[in-house]
Design a protein that fits this description.
It is built from eleven helices and 21 strands. It is α+β, with helices and mostly antiparallel strands. The chain has a four-stranded antiparallel sheet with strand order 3-12-7-10, with helices on one face. A four-stranded antiparallel sheet has the order 4-11-8-9, with no helix packed on it. It has a four-stranded mixed sheet with strand order 13-17-15-16.
């Protein structure tokens, strides 16, 4: 039936499935055949039937349509007697995915997948974005010609449920909803989950309007190229919040690397929401923390150095302030913690998810709150450092300054002699009367040169004045 379609019928069928309608007739025919072969569904068969009925009579079409859904394909083989027998062909594999209503998996990006199903590209999970639905799976951006600048369009339709979620969501900022439709782009690599990565010369157009893409971070260092934060692109404010199809066109630079694009319906979270979630499910029991301390301080018979204690600072290495919520990654080997509040706020502004203590990855899913250190912070408020002992206990560590303050005896009051009292009182009176009664001492004179040969006093080159009203207590 598809082979008898004209160009208009082929374009109508491809548009119904959400595939690209551009190209010559033989290209459209190839796409329609691949659509029937790989992604055929009851909706597509019904559309084919409608298009065929407009070209042919109903009577000639009914036997074919009544036979196709129930009839199984057969192949002819020779048996041992030499006669032909028909053997039913095995059904197609059940893992083929079909387009469903409201545009899920419907897109115009790239070419049609080959018969051999490739592993899907996966994107890393973003803590600040909770995925509600997948509007379009990651699809490779394939260049259509030899030009350096390429365009890849895709279309999708929001369901009534999607529209309701967006409209009823709260505002994060003026004009920015918490439920969003976002575009994510990454390298085409199925070996592991991929981080967001923009292609060169990227531009995103949504329904004939360009969407803002995060710009570059300025670089103050000479010779260092500015970096671009690759984040999901929010398309919500430019979409049609109705059953009308939305068209997204990605302009990108074709310079050898392969990229894939995907569309998601997400709920954007804040650092406060992640913190509350971490407090609910991420607190490590104090006894488990104490067992970890004992494990680290266990005596190793093969080691010549015995560790009797581990020092832990109660100051956050990020902001140099006292810890409020001690946090660390469960995969880190150290016991030193950082403050969860500041760590989440910093990653909300610029996501790096690197441990500030050991500079190793510390993703949100691996963060824990140290229950033992949180308890110690409430009991030890006068010191900024503690030491864990081998039996799991701890003791505060006082600094040298604190030791000097605590060990210095109080200053004893002493009574000055009558001569010194009169000297101080007289000096103070002179100061109050505007007179300066001070001794002048010339430190440049030798003991034997009080006068020169002419009997004149020597010239005074440097003078140090000692006020009689000042008394040193040291």
């Amino acid at each position: 039936m598809v082979m008898s379609f004209r160009v208009a019928d082929l374009q109508t069928l491809l548009g119904f499935a959400g595939w690209s309608k551009s190209g010559l007739k033989h290209e459209l025919m190839t796409r329609c055949l691949q659509l029937v072969q790989l992604r055929c569904s009851p909706e597509v068969l019904k559309k084919i039937k409608e298009l065929y009925e407009t070209r042919n009579s109903k009577k000639s079409l009914e036997p074919v349509l009544q036979r196709r859904p129930t009839e199984t394909l057969q192949i002819a083989t020779l048996d041992h007697t030499g006669s032909l027998t028909k053997v039913p062909m095995p059904p197609p594999p059940p893992n083929l995915e079909y387009p469903v209503q409201y545009g899920k998996y419907v897109n115009g990006l790239g070419k049609f997948p080959p018969k051999v199903i490739k592993p899907e590209v996966r994107l890393v999970k973003l803590p600040f974005y909770e995925v509600l639905d997948e509007l379009m799976k990651p699809v490779e951006l394939i260049p259509q010609n030899a030009e350096k600048i390429q365009e890849s369009p895709c279309t999708f339709v929001l369901s009534p449920r999607h529209i309701e979620l967006i409209r009823n969501s709260r505002d994060l900022h003026p004009g920015v909803k918490s439920v969003q439709v976002v575009l994510r782009i990454c390298y085409t690599d199925s070996s592991c989950p991929q981080e967001d990565q923009y292609p060169p010369n990227i531009a995103v157009k949504v329904n004939h309007n360009y969407c803002a893409v995060p710009g570059y971070y300025p670089s103050n260092k000479p010779g260092v190229e500015p970096k671009r934060p690759c984040r999901p692109v929010n398309l919500t404010h430019l979409l049609y919040l109705s059953t009308t199809s939305n068209r997204v066109t990605i302009t990108w630079g074709n310079f050898g690397k392969s990229y894939s694009a995907a569309l998601y319906l997400v709920r954007q979270l804040t650092s406060d929401e992640l913190l509350q979630k971490l407090k609910t499910i991420g607190v490590k029991h104090p006894e488990l923390c104490r067992a970890l301390i004992k494990e680290k301080l266990r005596l190793d018979p093969d080691s010549e150095i015995a560790t009797t204690g581990l020092r832990v600072s109660l100051m956050c290495p990020l902001v140099k302030m006292r810890l409020s919520i001690p946090c660390r990654s469960d995969t880190c080997a150290h016991l030193q913690c950082f403050d969860a509040v500041f760590y989440l706020q910093m990653n909300e502004k610029k996501p790096t998810w690197m441990c500030p203590v050991c500079d190793k990855p510390a993703p949100y899913d691996q963060l824990i709150i140290d229950g033992l250190l949180a308890k110690i912070l409430t009991q030890c408020e006068e010191t900024d450092e503690i030491e864990y002992l081998a039996d799991g206990s701890w003791r505060p560590i006082t600094t040298e300054k604190e030791r000097e303050t605590s060990s210095t005896p109080p200053c004893n009051m002493f009574e000055l002699g009558s001569d010194i009292k009169e000297l101080i009182i007289g000096s103070n009176n002179n100061v109050l009367n505007g007179k300066s009664n001070a001794d002048v001492v010339d430190l440049t004179l030798d003991s034997s040169s009080d006068e020169d040969e002419d009997g004149n006093p020597p010239k005074k080159r440097a003078r140090y004045i000692y006020d009689k009203g000042l008394v040193s207590a040291y």
